Amino acid sequence: MPSTVEKLSPTRVKITVEVPFAELKPALDKAYRDIASQVNIPGFRAGKVPPLVIDQRFGRGMVLNEAINQSLPELYGKAIQENELTPLGEPEVEVTKLEDNELVEFTAEVDVRPEFEVPAFDAVSVQVDNLEVGEERVEEQIDLLRQRFGTLAEVERAAEEGDVVTVDLVGAQNGEELEEATAAGVQYKIGSGGMLDGLDEAVTGLSAGESATFSSELVGGPLRGETVDVTVTLQKVSVQELPEVDDEFAQLVSEFDTVDEMREDLRATVQNMARLEQAADARDKVLEEVISRVEIELPEKVLQAEIDARHQQIQNQLAQAGLTLDQYLEDGDTEQTAEEFWADIDARSAEALKAQLLLDQVADNEEIGVEQQDLTQHILRKAQQSGTSPEQEMQHMLEHNHMGEWMTEIRRGKALAMIVDAATVTDADGNDINLKFLQEDGSLAGMDTEGEVDVESADSPDSPDSPDSPDSPDSPDSADEVEEPAEAEETADKA
């Protein structure tokens, strides 16, 4: 099956394929069988209509069309493989010549991965912030535990800042009550904000059974942005009683017998979280630096599809939140216009596509594969992140045909891990940050009794964070980690 490739641009090719009729025979035979089983012709049993009769009744062209359409995907795939092309997106296929019993010729125009030079990763150097874990972060964790296990006690007095009150809210415009702005039994902590402007002032000083009216602009729902009169009636006042931080508290909220043991465990947990944050920052900066050193011409149609998908995702998120883009920007901490917002999203889309093309090229160059264990670990991670079971994630993957997509994520993650491992990462003090010792929970593998890294243990192929292991934290499997080479797409996430 001879084929030729014409380069239309650095990112698009035209493949011309000649197919001898002998290669179409299996598809032709199948086409005749399929048509024979579907037609009812007097004198012939179902499925036993001869090809000559089918040609006479329905025309040879119908059969040829059916056979060619069935064969094109496989023939196109062979041409792609023979010419060692990496297609991006669906091809535009056209049958350009058809000589019955001789040959079929077709062309396929498709975007392909552009050729580019991959830089030397060992020449890449980035700096991340120092690993600093202040005692205040430990105290924050303890405060969260106290609040989780705290209790509410009703009190007979006027409401004060910090009290938890139960209130009824009735909104009205021009004296007419609004169902959309009415709620009963709402629990609210005075001073926490996030509900209605003016609510804190209105309820402060009220006692159970008393009411107050104030004006406020609604921040959500169909009346968003409209000013209404809100009558708040206080039902009860409660104070939050937090448990004392003592050994009894430690036994209640943890597996430890003493506060000191609990604090030490929380301190280690906070430190592990900080390591993971530092590692994520390192991966982002390494990928961003590598991308800045590569000239990649992006396929226009593929890039536009990426941009359109991101625009649609953000529009859907805004619609679900009941917001327009202008409202979102007005409420946010940004002074961007809508045009600037979309321009920023488009630029991020281009950087994400560059990251994908780069990681795919590296994975091909290094012949990075995906094993069954890699996919299993990926499914386990997704289940843990989404709070589902591995069986549910597996079923979701099969039902929505996600296997290819997930395997691509894993492969890109492995490529990024290899790049980061080759690069030099230091903190602000100049200390080397070696991420291959980092495990998924943020702890370091191969730690000896004095808290030092045991290099032999950490480098062992059996170590769960060895570079060859799919569990390595240097191998981010999520698309977000791979697709965002710089900072996270905060604007889209907030929307």
Share of helical residues: 40-55%
Describe the biggest sheet? 5 strands, antiparallel
Elements, N to C (H/E): EEHHHEEEHEEEHEEHHHHHHHHEHHH
The CATH architecture name of the largest domain reads: Orthogonal Bundle
In CATH, the topology of the largest domain is named: Trigger factor, domain 2
Structural class: alpha+beta
- Residue stretches low in confidence (pLDDT < 50, at least 5 long) are 455-495
Radius of gyration: 32 Å
Per DSSP E runs of 2 or more residues, the count of β-strands stands at: 11
Domains counted in the coordinates: how many? 3
Give the helix tally: 16
Mean pLDDT: 85
Shape: extended
CATH superfamily of the largest domain: Trigger factor, C-terminal domain
Distance between the termini: 51 Å
Percentage beta strand? 15-25%
Characteristics:
Trigger factor, domain 2, disordered C terminus, single chain, 3 domains, 5-stranded antiparallel beta sheet, 45% helix, 16 helices, extended, 495 residues, Chitinase A, domain 3, Alpha-Beta Plaits
